[in-house]
């Protein structure tokens, strides 16, 4: 029988500490809730219920012991891109004993949500994601753990710094399967169809290269914008995705090897993928940089020659490109700022390892490209920004009053000093702003006098968020 408890209503407080905000998921072994820890200044956390299919209280006790053992493994994981294990919570819900795991809440957007919002990702964005995740996978694999469920839903682009976080480890499912096996019941295989390899879905076996397979499957979904079943030929046992994504030959080779059907034909470790990406960086950069520059030049030419009556359609087509452009420039500016801060520091080997190998060429090219890109970004062209307020990166060129220019400059300098991804921060400000003024969603604030009060609200929101982030530091 199921030990699943009744759905917890919003506002319910468990153990005089965790106030339920809302249910955010449900699986075969329980529900997941977003909650506030009222003992920690209403800090958000995630509560995952453990409710295995058992037939007796004795089996439930055994399940709870196994669950505690498995969650103890999670407790030992200490990585900045993995949600922190906070506590095991045993409590009564509607008279029944219930067990929850409490984890850190990672605020941000999943890559699946990102894909739906902006469309397919560029090669540079996907390489960036992979490069950020490889050290995480090295860490958990060195701890003799396999994640087993990598997919766009379980990768979060963290709002605070733009880094990719890996969530939803399978410890709950592992414990439930251990109970099922001991009681002679059927075992639920862990993984997601389309993203998990055959050995995992059919035989329940998982290796480090199984996670690498899932990571590559996630990458091609993000590159093509298509679901795995649209890209995989189950009769041939082969992926057919290359014609639907603009990817350099070198990167294609890396992804295809990660996606090999037989485990022995794949890279056997995340560190090996890192070595290969480092080795292939020159050819990847050469082809990728050419594609980026050609695309950028083509867009500018289109804007220059476009007749005025086509302005709205061009704005719509280029808004997505502009958003990515701002994001890329922001990331490069942030990286450059970090370098300048460390100018007096004698670099060690470890310092150099922090740079993503494929980004060395981008950073070098940025010496020539970035000034032009930034200049282009601040000119009042007909390109619309996705932000509510077109936050001028060079206030000196603005026609706003001096006090407003100084305020803009101060906000941006504070964002940089906190090492926050500017694009993610402005999006966060917009979210709060649009909650107050939903009618202005999709409307860009201008320097006109009628937008003065709205601009003031936008600045106030940005300032309050920065104050909060500085206190958290």
Automatic annotation (TrEMBL):
Q: Tell me which PROSITE patterns the record gives.
A: PROTEIN_KINASE_ATP, PROTEIN_KINASE_DOM
Quote the record's binding site residues for ATP.
48
Q: Which SUPFAM superfamilies match?
A: Protein kinase-like (PK-like)
Q: Which domain of life is it from?
A: Bacteria
Q: Which GO terms describe its molecular function?
A: ATP binding; protein serine/threonine kinase activity
Sequence intervals crossing the membrane: 358-379
The enzyme's first-digit EC class, named in words, is transferase
Listed EC numbers: 2.7.11.1
Q: Which CDD domains match?
A: STKc_PknB_like
Catalytic activity annotation? L-seryl-[protein] + ATP = O-phospho-L-seryl-[protein] + ADP + H(+); L-threonyl-[protein] + ATP = O-phospho-L-threonyl-[protein] + ADP + H(+)
Q: What is this protein called?
A: non-specific serine/threonine protein kinase
């Amino acid at each position: 029988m199921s030990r699943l408890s009744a759905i917890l209503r919003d506002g319910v407080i468990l153990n005089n500490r965790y106030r339920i905000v809302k249910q955010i998921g449900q699986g075969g072994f329980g529900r997941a809730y977003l909650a506030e820890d009222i003992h920690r200044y209403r800090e958000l956390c995630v509560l995952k219920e453990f409710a295995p299919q058992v037939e007796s209280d004795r089996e439930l006790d055994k399940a709870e012991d196994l669950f505690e053992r498995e969650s103890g493994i999670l407790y030992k994981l200490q990585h900045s891109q993995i949600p922190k294990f906070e506590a095991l919570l045993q409590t009564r819900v509607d008279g029944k004993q219930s067990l929850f795991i409490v984890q850190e809440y990672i605020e941000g957007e999943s890559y699946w949500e990102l894909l739906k919002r902006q469309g397919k990702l560029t090669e540079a964005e996907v390489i960036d994601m992979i490069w950020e995740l490889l050290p995480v996978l090295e860490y958990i694999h060195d701890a003799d753990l396999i994640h087993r469920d990598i997919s766009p839903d379980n990768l979060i682009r963290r709002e605070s710094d733009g880094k990719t976080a890996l969530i939803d480890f399978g410890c709950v499912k592992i414990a439930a399967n251990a109970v099922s096996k001991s009681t002679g019941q059927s075992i639920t295989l862990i993984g997601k169809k389309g993203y998990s390899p055959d050995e995992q879905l059919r035989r329940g076996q998982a290796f480090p290269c199984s996670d690498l397979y899932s990571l590559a499957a996630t990458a091609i979904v993000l590159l093509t914008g298509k679901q795995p079943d649209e890209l995989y030929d189950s009769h041939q046992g082969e992926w057919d995705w290359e014609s639907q994504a603009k990817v350099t030959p070198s990167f294609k080779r890396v992804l295809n090897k990660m996606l090999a059907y037989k485990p022995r034909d794949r890279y056997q470790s995340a560190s090996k993928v890192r070595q290969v990406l480092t080795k292939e960086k020159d050819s990847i950069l050469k082809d990728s940089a050419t594609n980026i520059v050609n695309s950028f030049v083509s867009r500018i030419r289109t804007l220059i020659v476009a007749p005025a009556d086509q302005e709205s359609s061009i704005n719509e087509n280029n808004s997505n490109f502009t958003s990515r452009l701002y994001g890329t420039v922001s990331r490069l500016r942030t990286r450059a700022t970090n370098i300048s801060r460390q100018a007096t520091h004698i670099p060690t080997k470890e310092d150099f390892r922090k740079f993503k190998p494929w980004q060395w060429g981008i950073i070098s090219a940025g010496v020539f490209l970035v000034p032009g890109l930034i200049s282009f970004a601040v000119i009042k062209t007909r390109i619309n920004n996705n932000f509510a307020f077109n936050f001028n990166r060079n206030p000196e060129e603005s026609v706003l009053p001096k006090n407003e220019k100084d305020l803009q400059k101060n906000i941006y300098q504070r964002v940089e000093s906190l090492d926050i991804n500017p694009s993610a921060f402005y999006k966060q400000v917009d979210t709060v702003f649009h909650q107050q003024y939903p009618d202005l969603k999709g409307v860009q604030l201008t320097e006109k006098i009628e937008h003065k009060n709205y601009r003031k609200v936008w600045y106030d929101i940005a300032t309050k968020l920065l104050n909060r982030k500085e206190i958290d530091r």
